[in-house]
Write a structure and sequence with these properties.
Distance between the termini: 50 Å
Bound molecules: glutathione
Largest sheet: 5 strands, mixed
Number of domains: 2
CATH topology of the largest domain: D-Maltodextrin-Binding Protein, domain 2
Radius of gyration: 21 Å
């Protein structure tokens, strides 16, 4: 009986330490451990000095600025697609910010929670121009390279069935292998999220020889994810990212955030920037939680432009990722 009680107690203890206290843990180790891609220009890739840079990287740096007062205190852990969910649910990483689609199964069944959609994406196909195919509907009989552990696999099969076409999927363990198989001609097409196609095409030997076909075959809402069950930590990541979108809505930028905090008479802005109210306490943080995030990486629009904007090599139009006030889907929840 006593033994049973002890076993019961130890299970309760294991569960509670595994499923809560991420904020305390992160603050104790003084570093945020973040799962990231293995290298996708624009989203996350090491620069010439070995520093990770990109849109997904900046989301993690915003969280680190908020909870550790230093955007540099992030340890990035490159994860292949098939590891990205388990790395979070098992506690290997505190957060994953890595082109990951919010699906029901992952959310409700695989021990993770999604936070805020940072990029509304969709799946597409890349094909060599030499094949002269202009539409995904015409790829009957084609071989398609795809990466294991992605939503792309199921979408590809669904697309083939729904359109009554035969597709041979060649599934590879990692993106690197899948892309190199495509580039050496083992597959006719390569499929993944459209933003990644735009990005990965720039890494091919002759990008201009490949085109991205017009069809969008799925919805891929990409969001950073955390372990299921630690509500406070989920709230923190969700509201920091939400705050970056809210900052864009309110015209708060990396350059003007301190001035806005000092001078703005707008009560909404005063509350967001901690001049009034007590939003920091809702998250277990201080009143400057959002100021630090914006200082570190700028607002959502600035982050988008820095990595995907017209001045970049990728130049991915904002499309549905525009603010809702400009006809897009990015909509910040109210900070009050
Ligand atoms: N959004 C999809 C696919 C995302 C994805 O990350 N795809 C692959 C194949 S292109 C990948 O691993 N990319 C990044 C990497 O190099 O780590 C998902 O959540 O499954």
């Amino acid at each position: 009986m006593k033994k049973l009680l002890l076993i019961g107690l130890s299970i309760v203890l294991t569960v509670s330490t595994a499923w809560s206290g991420t904020l305390e843990n992160v603050q104790k180790k003084d570093v945020l451990t973040c799962g990231i891609s293995e290298g996708v220009p624009g989203f996350s890739i090491p620069d010439s000095t070995g520093q990770w840079v990109g849109f997904d990287v900046d989301m993690a740096r915003a969280v680190a600025a908020s909870v550790l007062s230093d955007p540099k205190k992030v340890k990035f852990v490159p994860l292949a697609s098939k590891q990205k969910i388990i790395a979070v649910s098992s506690g290997q990483v505190d957060l994953t910010s890595r082109t990951t689609t919010w699906t029901m199964k992952r959310d409700a069944k695989q021990g993770v929670d999604f936070t805020k959609i940072v990029f509304y994406d969709g799946q597409g196909f890349m094909i060599s121009k030499a094949l002269g195919v202009d539409s995904a509907a015409k790829i009957d009989g084609a071989t398609v390279c795809v990466t294991a552990g992605t939503t792309s696999e199921l979408n590809l099969a669904d697309f083939a069935r729904a359109n009554d076409i035969n597709i041979e999927a060649l599934v590879f363990d990692g993106k690197k292998e899948a892309l190199s198989a495509y580039s050496t001609g083992r597959c006719d097409c390569f499929t993944t999220d459209l933003s990644q196609l735009a990005s990965l095409r720039t890494t091919l030997a002759n990008p201009q020889d490949h085109k991205i076909m017009p069809e969008v075959i799925s919805k891929e809402p990409l969001a950073p994810l955390v372990r299921h069950g630690d509500n406070q930590w989920k709230d923190i990541v969700t509201w920091v990212i939400n705050g970056l979108i809210a900052a864009e809505e309110s015209g708060i930028t990396q350059a003007n955030v301190l001035e806005m905090k000092g001078k703005s008479k707008n009560p909404v802005i005063q509350r967001m920037l901690g001049k009034s109210g007590d939003t920091g306490s809702y998250l277990g943080l201080d009143q400057d939680w959002l100021v630090r995030a914006i200082q570190a990486v700028g607002n959502y629009g600035e982050i988008y432009d820095r990595h995907f904007g017209p001045e970049t090599k990728l130049n991915i139009p904002r499309g549905v990722n525009k603010l809702w006030t400009q006809g897009g889907l990015q909509y910040a929840l109210p900070i009050r």
